[in-house]
Amino acid sequence: MAKKYYFLSDFHLGAPDANRSLEREKKIVDFLEGIQSDVAELFILGDVFDFWFEYKNAVPRGHVRLLGQLAKMSDAGIPIHWFTGNHDMWIFDYIPNELGVKLHRGPVERELLGKHFLIGHGDGLGPGDHGYKLLKKVFASRVSQWLFARFHPNFGIGLANFFSKSSRKANREKDRIFLGKEEEWLAQFCEDMDAVQQRDYYIFGHRHLPMAINLSKGGVYINTGDWMGPCTYAVFDESGMRLKSHLTDAQFHGDAAAHLMSRESLPEQ
């Protein structure tokens, strides 16, 4: 059986409540169990959790089904790449050490089956969003991490969950709308990168909207969407790249897969 490379992102486990998060987690685990026999490498492109912070001797509760499945796959020798996102940038050593995954804090270059890839979460890339870019630098600093660790976990995790949910609520409507190739920041970033050094595929998450956009120099920008609605992912093998949904048999192509899969057709979980 030909081996395949899978890319998926933005699970946001923990949101919006325990019951719906658990339902979503079970779908993700079901998907991962289904691909275990043919996956060459698994790329998880960030925001697995709606919030995560590792204290020295404590981590957030829950998500044991997903973590157990990933540990099982890793123990079976499947390489797993885990990219931190803007909601779970405070993953430190627990996830890589416990699960045996490779942790990435920024985009990485890879060559797969003779094709050149740039792979990452996607937050803070492209023009604009200067406020977030500054905030990201603050959150990434060791001083900020040390100060947050002084909070008791009950207070610190509760406070962070509040702000995380507020951020998602504020951006939910924008996440449903394809802004057009010229207004999508990640598409612009990929266009600029492709003009300097052409790659075959640019694969990111973060945007919560599945899309496949052809770039001027020949590369393709793929956004994997999320698992809070359409449950979309990208898969690559010798026959090429496909953007698919775990909930349907549909495959999406063209300058904006977002046009072919609207959130109106799939309820938000």
Helix and strand layout, with pairings?
Blueprint: E1 4-8, H1 18-35, E2 39-44, H2 64-75, E3 80-83, H3 94-99, E4 102-104, E5 108-112, E6 115-120, H4 130-140, H5 142-149, H6 153-175, H7 185-196, E7 201-204, E8 210-214, E9 220-224, E10 232-237, E11 240-245, E12 251-252, H8 257-260
Parallel strand pairs: 1-2, 2-3, 3-4, 6-7, 7-9
Antiparallel strand pairs: 1-10, 5-6, 8-9, 10-11, 11-12
Helix pairs in contact: 1-2
Task: Please describe what this structure looks like.
- This protein has 269 residues and is α/β, with parallel strands linked by helices.
- It has a single domain (4-265), classed as Purple Acid Phosphatase, chain A, domain 2, CATH 3.60.21.10.
- Helices cover 35% and strands 21% of the residues.
- It has 8 helices and 12 strands.
- The protein has helices spanning 18-35, 64-75, 94-99, 130-140, 142-149, 153-175, 185-196, 257-260, and strands spanning 4-8, 39-44, 80-83, 102-104, 108-112, 115-120, 201-204, 210-214, 220-224, 232-237, 240-245, 251-252.
- Helix 1 (18-35) runs parallel beside helix 2.
- The longest helix has 23 residues, at 153-175.
